[in-house]
Design goal:
It is built from twelve helices and eleven strands. By secondary structure, it is of the alpha/beta class. It has one domain: TIM Barrel. The longest helix is centred in the C-terminal third of the chain and has 19 residues. The chain starts with a helix and ends with a helix. The mean pLDDT is 95.
Length: 269
Amino acid sequence: MMPNERAAEFLALHSGHGFVLPNAWDAGSARILEQAGFAAIATTSAGVAWSLGIPDGGALDFERMLDRIAEIVGAVGVPVTADLEAGYGDTAVDVGRTVGRAVAAGVVGGNIEDTRQGALIDVDEAAERLTAARDAAPRGTFVLNARTDAYFMGGSDDPFRDTVDRAQRYLDAGADCIFVPGVDDVESIRRLVAEIPAPLNIVAGLSAKIIDAPTLFSLGVKRVSLGGSLARVAITALERAARELAGSGTLGFLDGAISYGDVQRRFAR
């Protein structure tokens, strides 16, 4: 399938009832998610960083992140959208360059967030950065998902109004959809869907108050992603196994594990 066909296929998912977009952190996890039947896959900056022994939050440089993104794209046949964090640069020109290189690596979409060093970027600057991203990847070739962190960062007197206002500016700048992490109450999500004239992306499992995908779809959310949650599940399983092995030497953690032969078959071309 040609890149533009993948982009069109991915964009079309946003106009249906709603879809789950799982987040892979390497080629192997991407292959497993594709085999589970997902129509598209996202990357997770958190999961990629953790898999390299680095904390999330910008500690991983773009070159290493791009290498991992390209490996994920090359491992699967479904559309891949990338977590591009804040665009890996201080200026709008930097953001445009980042998006252009991501497109060259084969992704058909990406998130750009409106934070820098733990604080929200001024809305005018954030919109300018999204305009540069859109210029680097025209509509129809790349699904631009504008992330706004008014809820996630905290500190706003009215995160709902701040989110809606920022969302409109970002749509005017060229975004295709709006990504709002950190909101976890049903009524706020329902109001965001009503106020934002574009597909809404919500993260499931980010907070202790878990809202499942069917419930989010019933509220009008079009895109449900997982962030680093699947990577956390994998890390949790590994840590539990390691603690059992180090503590007692027993192998109870192998109960229910996929056999070596079955894993081999999952990764066979």
